[in-house]
């Protein structure tokens, strides 16, 4: 489903963020991407989202080489791969419902589909009663649920989460992990970059560790492996 083949990324001709990455991620995997600050995790995610291009190598998503897709066609990639961030990135002047509906409007979904899908994903993340609220009226955990609902509303096959629990207290972080695991059980591949040792150690999923741009560990039912 995702394949990195001899992928390297060098910024500004000298800063080697990723070095010869070879990796396969299968449909339905739940992956923790770990490693010290500056190891290359965000770069890995940016390459997958086509926000950056690799300096060398090829990246396949569903057998399609995304390094060969033109920028113009990137929105189509976004139907397959969707993302949630540490800082939620909700639109402040839209309600919860409108934030989620907006993700469907940009891919030109019909209003009928929107009316069907938005309540469905709000139910999945446990926020059916918050549809009319604005982001500033929600707790951090609720905002992250909205951002997850928005990320899954177009049924992507892959969900990327870049430190999704980084701004949340431990209890709320666990609620978010339950939601992500539930989405994974329904068949969505989840790739989550994180520094949350507790979560990684408890959940026993595949762990890929990056250090200085290289994969130093790829473990089935792995642990976090660092002290922070
Ligand atoms: N736009 C950029 N321009 C130049 N160098 C960059 C750029 N983005 C990242 N880097 C460098 O690439 C390397 C990898 O950074 P990256 O952000 O991928 O690490 P990370 O593992 O996500 O770190 P963190 O855990 O702190 O988020 C670092 O040396 C960083 O300074």
UniProtKB/TrEMBL annotation:
Name the gene behind this protein: ftsE
Query: SUPFAM superfamilies of this UniProt entry?
Result: P-loop containing nucleoside triphosphate hydrolases (SSF52540)
Entry protein name: Cell division ATP-binding protein FtsE
> Which Pfam families does the record match to this protein?
ABC_tran
Q: Where in the cell is it found?
A: Cell membrane
Predominant location category: membrane
User: InterPro entries per the record?
Assistant: AAA+_ATPase, ABC_transporter-like_ATP-bd, ABC_transporter-like_CS, ABC_transpr_LolD-like, Cell_div_FtsE, P-loop_NTPase
Looking up SMART domains in the UniProt record yields:
AAA
UniProt feature coiled coil, ranges:
none
User: What does the record say about its membrane topology?
Assistant: Peripheral membrane protein
A single GO CC term, please?
Answer: plasma membrane
